[in-house]
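Dear support,

We are seeing what looks like truncated structure output for some complexes. This example has two components. We would appreciate it if you could run it in full and send us the complete token output so we can diff it against ours.
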Amino acid sequence: MLKQLRFKNWRNLRDVTIDLSPITVLIGANSSGKTNIFDGLKFMRDANVKGLEKLVAAMGYTTIVSNSPIEDGVVSLEFTFDGFQTSGLVTDSLHLKFDGRNFPFNYARGLVEGDVIFEDKTHFRELPIKNGSMDIYAGQAVEIEQRQRELRTTLIQNYQRRWQLLAENFFPASRLSGSETGDLYILESDGKNMLFSLEFMLDAYPELFKEFDQDARWLLQHVKTLAITRHPETREIELRLYEETKKLAPTISMGTLRSLAMLAAIHSLNMPQPLQLSYFSTLEPNIIPPETPGLIFIEEPDAALNPGVLQKFVELLRGYVENPDGTRPRQIILTTHNPTFLNYFEPEEVRVLQRGEDGHTSVHLIPDYIHDIWLKDGEYGLGEVWLTNLFGGTNP
Amino acid sequence: MSGTIWLIAEDETDKTIIEAILRAKKVTVRVESVRMAGKTGGISRLAAQLEKLIETTLKIKKPKDCIAVLYDADEAKDPQRLHQQKIAATCQTYKVKAILVHQTIESWLLADSGVCQWLKQKLQNWDEESDPKHKLDSLLKDNKKHRLSSGGRQAVIEHLKGDGDAYSPSMKVALKHLKDAPCLLIIGGGRRALRRR
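Here is the complete output from our reference environment:
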């Protein structure tokens, strides 16, 4: 599981460390940096999927760093994991050193397990990469190299295929034309390919689709039947919701579609996923089993949701994370501005982003005295107390 | 004056008004709003939560900071003054010094020369006005086609000169105490309470 995120000079996150729990809720005023955290995870994932060089070229300098000058000229993202079959934590990091605002720039990868450094984060090299595409620090002893490869393989599996990242404005379509394509396992950050994934799940893993369908109908009580059909001629995929037997819902609301996308993101992780690790040409294609940890990061999941379903939604999330039989370890990160939604979380699950007068963000936990003064007798919910401005994370 | 005023108020907009008045008076102080938990507004809610709000603020305030409690002495809302009495008792428990003002904070805005000029009103003491908020809203509506609830308050603030204490005794008293900046500061009460003192 992902244990800790550390950002240095990543936009307004000058030097921020965030310890994660199974469910982590990020709160903060507008422009406090919640989306920058989301984008940081996406950047690390996409750097592994698309390649760092292409990613930076596509994004441009100004979307990577803040507008203010960088003290030491290095943008760093460091993510720490546990559960790598050893007692030590594994930290994977990416460091970008810019000299000016254009290519070329220097980068370094870091890979540390416990006290063992496999890839040295101070070893900067230049992009574009000149000697082949191998993106790994070479020259290690054989036994270390094997472990290094194992770690990288696991990390890539985690990054590439196990992070479902839904951005704030995600809004899947209720119908997709036959010419559109998309990933079958991982949702785009706008949720656009939800129907592809659900159609595939229905065809290939009907028992998993049934689980998704049950959760969807439990959350959205107005939905009695959920059907995904593909037109035989146009190949268009359509989502149909029936409110009663054979009574087709005249429209499908944004809240309903967003709910389905969030559940699809979670349930898609339960499908075994084939993965061709072209990165390591010597390795055979892999199957990533559902037992592999999965991370779901959803920005503003409560947007367009009726307050009446928020509690049920959080109960569902807890069910996925608690994972009683230990077969599907899942971790969830959420952002919210909604005090009603926050009422359903524990103080220790919340991280408060606070922007200082210098424009940079710090992150803190909710202090214990908030529980002692406000929460212990149950009279007030956490979200209600958030409104007092006494633990931060609100607009001035 | 350095430090921060932690302003506990019924209404979030009170913080904006206090900030604007201090800014107009060239007083450099940061004002942090302490809001009520749950729904905003209501003296009964403030009375019920004040102890918790003060206790929590005491945990986060720095030595140079002070706490101010601002509430309306709206007798229509609290004719028996039960909530005001509870607020006063809470202040006493925490050894809080009280600064008492008349009615709602809008009487301070009405006594401001910049606002009066803008609204074409004679300068006078509005502390005796039974409902200063309603009066200000009416003047805005009649003179500027504005409403307090839809941008009018911001327009008023932009015309503040911060000299309302020349005509508003309650504002004068409040500012005197703000200037003294004790560790814990209470602004609130009403005419009756002031006379009782």
